[in-house]
Amino acid sequence: MSRSYDVKFWKTKRNASSKKPSYVVRWIVDGKECSKTFGGSELAENFLSDLRQAARRGEWFDTDTGLPESMLKAKNARTWLEFAQAYMHLRWPHQAAKSRQASIETLVAVTLVLTNNRKSRPDTKLLRRALSRHVFLPKDRRPEPDAHVDTALRWLEAASLSMAELNEPRYARTVMEAFAVCLDGRAAAPTTFRRKRAVFHHALEYAVELGELDGNPLDRVKWKPAKPNSVVDRRVVVNPRQARELLTAVSYIGRTRGPMLAAMFACMYYAGLRPAEAQGLRKKDCFLPGDGWGHITPTRTRPQSHKLYTDSGRSFDERGLKHRAQNEDRLVPIPAVLVAILLAHIEVFGTAPDGRLFYTRGGGTFSGADYAAVWQAARALALTPDQVNSPLAGRPYHLRHAAVSLWLNAGVHAPEVAERAGHSVDVLLRTYAKCIDGQRDVANQRIEKALES
């Protein structure tokens, strides 16, 4: 086997000679042309992206197979453990911090199941720590293993099932059974189950692409998970009076933290921003006239994740907007009341060095725990005891739900609401179906009027 760093890529091309649609990925390694055919354009583009990412990381390419180091390790893996480690190494550059964390949690759960019944199995907590901190993290983020972890790693290497054994659907079913239960023995939420299944399915599809599996064994497992309930509970939605009282109450919590966060919460209610979007809002993103409506154009978010999984090594990475291209923004008109709130906020607090409107004393970003604590204190001030014990505005995110519900009930067309909220129309209507009041009577009146004509 010879290695080379001399790699060039072509764009994917539709295979005109085949009856069924197929797409070819072509690249050159050390002057030798390589190619691979896929049944769909998305699969082909993903494979080409993986090749390019490997080249950017400085990996060598095998001149015989044309594959980079990480792919070759996955292709030549004897065991699931070896394959899963190579797969996570390949996926790491493509994923956001939260997706990395979710992928590693899933691969840990799968790897613990796909082992044989060897004796002297270490404690499950130790095995989880060994996998999550020493196997699936990049090498430069792994701590030095102690004697206990080293023992666990050697056991996992010996006990992991071979990739050939995974062709049997019974192992995939065993993994599904593990996904259906939480660590404490309770049934897992449908969204958790589906998220883990999606990660496992993608890993197996990658194994099929590399020729490690004959087909995806999950496709042969008859398992119909419960549908997740993505519809917003109308009981969490506050009316405008309640929202105003809550925002006022926030400003009374603490000397500076509450007053600083009051405007951030106002952005969630009056502009429908997600918390991470509000955290990333900068002065230059705001058009704030002295009178009438203005607008904000969120372009960056600051989602919170464990620092082990972020690119920066801190708890917050700056990223683009959710469900949008990296540099794509969206314009959100804001009413005069929010314009006034933001102008007053800037006058009192100014901005962080990077222009952000909402920041801690040290110029950092408020953690979810910090602003949640302020919100709960404000609920206790603004709501009645019965309301405090109810789901009403139980989380700051519910302000966004209240905003979108208000827009829909005000008669704003769904496409406009979806654009302001950063949703697709179908997700918008499915999510807020129970929060739209009075539409049935309006529809009945229109139908009745049409029948009379």
Please, could you describe this protein's structure?
The protein has 453 residues and is of the alpha+beta class. 47% of the residues lie in helices and 7% in strands. The chain has helices spanning 41-56, 69-75, 80-91, 97-113, 124-135, 147-159, 169-179, 190-209, 240-250, 257-270, 275-279, 336-349, 368-382, 385-388, 398-409, 414-421, 425-431, 439-452, and strands at 3-4, 7-9, 13-14, 23-29, 32-38, 61-62, 286-287, 294-296, 332-334. Strands 2, 3, 4 and 5 form a four-stranded antiparallel sheet that branches. Helix 2 runs antiparallel to helix 3 (80-91), helix 4 (97-113) crosses helix 8 (190-209) and helix 5 (124-135) crosses helix 6.
> How many beta-strand elements?
9
Helix content: 40-55%
Mean pLDDT, to the nearest integer, reads 88
Rg from alpha-carbon coordinates = 26 Å
Shape: globular
Number of helices: 18
Strand content: 5-15%
N/C terminus separation: 81 Å
Topology order in helix (H) and strand (E) letters: EEEEEHEHHHHHHHHHHEEEHHHHHHH
Low-confidence stretches: none
The total domain count is 2
Structural class: alpha+beta
Keywords: DNA recombination
InterPro entries: DNA_brk_join_enz, Integrase-like_cat_sf, Integrase_catalytic, Tyrosine_recombinase_XerCD
Protein name: Tyrosine-type recombinase/integrase
Domain Tyr recombinase: 233-452
Outline of the structure:
The protein has 453 residues and is an alpha+beta fold. It contains 18 helices and nine strands.
